[in-house]
């Protein structure tokens, strides 16, 4: 049986999607025919222009809804305001690096709220909508750090491990329905934020761009290549396909072999 991926008539809500991985996933889902709801905490004309651009390029409906994923009521309002949510991609996230004794409490609270708790709140509102529609896909963006650890990233790693646990629980609660929940665990992805870090790192180490990428940034990624936002989007789109209907409650690593070590 040949499986095709046609998401026409489905609406995808992607948190934290005005750049980077979230935007890459939104674009790939739109290419497969899904209507798109973009989100971030800002509310600039550029945000709404992104949605308009996706609508024009892919011939789908696309709009932008502002919501701060650190606030539970706004997480829930995002799904309510979307009106329909067949595909939920919990992508919003932030990072802070510091040793545990020096880790600012407010940074811990913010990272747990945005990287973990927001996914609980959006999922809680989305599941009844999916059940009413008789179909749904929840895709949580975890990390290689959801499966392993590094020093100085306590909050991020705790949150990403938590996302994996939330994924498993959601999958078990929906196992007898046509609803799945899985986590994508990226390694280092070449996003605009990462791209901006490369010149500063080149100056810091006195290295070429290629050496900085291979010897500094990708030391834990055996492929020594960044994953791309298009690959993240392709993986998410596959999880929405009929071929993935029996894939639920698991993690899919897109990390160039990081977690194989």
Task: Provide the fold topology.
Blueprint: E1 11-14, H1 20-31, E2 35-40, H2 45-58, E3 62-66, H3 72-82, E4 87-90, H4 105-133, E5 136-141, H5 154-173, E6 179-186, H6 192-205, H7 209-217, H8 229-239, E7 251-254
Parallel strand pairs: 1-2, 1-4, 2-3, 4-5, 5-6, 6-7
Assess the beta-strand content as a share of residues. 5-15%
Q: What name does CATH use for the topology of the largest domain?
A: Rossmann fold
Radius of gyration equals: 18 Å
Structural class of the secondary structure composition?
alpha/beta
Count of alpha and pi helical runs = 8
Rough outline? globular
Helical content band: 40-55%
Average pLDDT confidence is 97
CATH architecture identity of the largest domain: 3-Layer(aba) Sandwich
Give the low-confidence spans.
none
Would you count the extended β strands for me?
7
| Total domain count | 2
Describe the overall structure.
- The protein is an alpha/beta fold and 261 residues long.
- It has two domains: 11-189 and 228-256, NAD(P)-binding Rossmann-like Domain (Rossmann fold, 3-Layer(aba) Sandwich); 190-226, no CATH class.
- It is 46% helix and 14% strand.
- It is built from eight helices and seven strands.
- The protein has helices at residues 20-31, 45-58, 72-82, 105-133, 154-173, 192-205, 209-217, 229-239, and strands spanning 11-14, 35-40, 62-66, 87-90, 136-141, 179-186, 251-254.
- It has a seven-stranded parallel sheet with strand order 3-2-1-4-5-6-7, sandwiched between helices.
- Strand 5, helix 5 and strand 6 (179-186) form a beta-alpha-beta unit.
- Helix 3 packs parallel to helix 4 (105-133).
- The protein starts with 10 loop residues before the first strand and ends in a 7-residue tail after the last strand.
């Amino acid at each position: 049986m040949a499986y095709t991926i046609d998401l026409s008539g489905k609406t995808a809500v992607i948190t934290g999607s005005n750049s980077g991985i979230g935007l890459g996933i939104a674009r790939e889902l739109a290419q497969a025919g899904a209507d798109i709801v973009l989100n971030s905490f800002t509310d600039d004309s550029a945000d709404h222009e992104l949605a308009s651009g996706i609508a024009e390029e892919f011939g789908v409906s696309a709009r932008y809804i502002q919501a701060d994923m650190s606030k539970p009521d706004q997480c829930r309002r995002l799904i309510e305001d979307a009106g329909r949510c067949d595909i939920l991609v919990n992508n919003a996230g932030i990072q802070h690096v510091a040793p545990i004794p020096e880790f600012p409490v407010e940074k811990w609270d913010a990272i747990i709220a945005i990287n973990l708790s927001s996914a609980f709140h959006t999922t809680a509102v989305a599941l009844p909508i999916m059940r009413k529609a008789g179909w749904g896909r929840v895709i949580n963006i975890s990390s290689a750090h959801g499966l392993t650890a590094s020093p100085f990233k306590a909050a991020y790693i705790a949150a990403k491990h938590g996302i994996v646990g939330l994924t498993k629980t959601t999958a078990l609660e929906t196992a007898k329905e046509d609803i799945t929940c899985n986590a994508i665990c990226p390694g280092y992805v070449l996003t605009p934020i990462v791209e901006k870090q490369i010149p500063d790192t080149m100056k810091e180490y006195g290295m070429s761009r290629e050496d900085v990428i291979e010897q500094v940034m990708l030391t834990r990624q055996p492929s020594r290549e960044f994953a791309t936002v298009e690959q993240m989007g392709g993986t998410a789109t596959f999880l929405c396909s009929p071929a993935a209907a029996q894939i639920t409650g698991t993690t899919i690593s897109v990390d160039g072999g990081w977690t194989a070590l």
